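pinned: reference chain
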Amino acid sequence: MSNEYRHVLVAVDLTKDSHKVLERAMQIADRNHAKLSIMHTLEPLGFAYGGDIPMDLTSIQDQLDEHAKQRLAEIADAHVDKENQHVVVGMPDTEIHRFAEEQGVDLIVVGSHGRHGFALLLGSTSTGVLHGAKCDVLAVRVGKDGEESEE
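pinned: its structure tokens
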């Protein structure tokens, strides 16, 4: 590897497997003396419900956002500065690409399950991240084959 990584982004789904993905990203960031950022993407509620619920989902979205920030802090506080912890609302692969380009990320680290656990976020998202990325992508194998990851 001739070029060192300068900014590593780890994208997590906030399950316990996030620790394993973060650890792998930390090892690479440490070896390369690189900046480390961590992010979690919340899908917008309006999108999940097709936008035809006659109610304001803002307060629920805000609560989900706050919960995600707390959960991300539990995972990341010991390893990643607060200003490098990000919870964003949107489609995961789109937001990961946007962040990577805006912040000069040269390695994206994601978790990859078979068909379960991460399936909602990273079954299709790790593929989506890989295809649209302008930088390297590392998919860290998490969970045991054929076994749900439970807390």
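why pinned: The helical segments are 17-32, 45-48, 58-76, 92-103, 119-123, 125-132. The radius of gyration is 15 Å.
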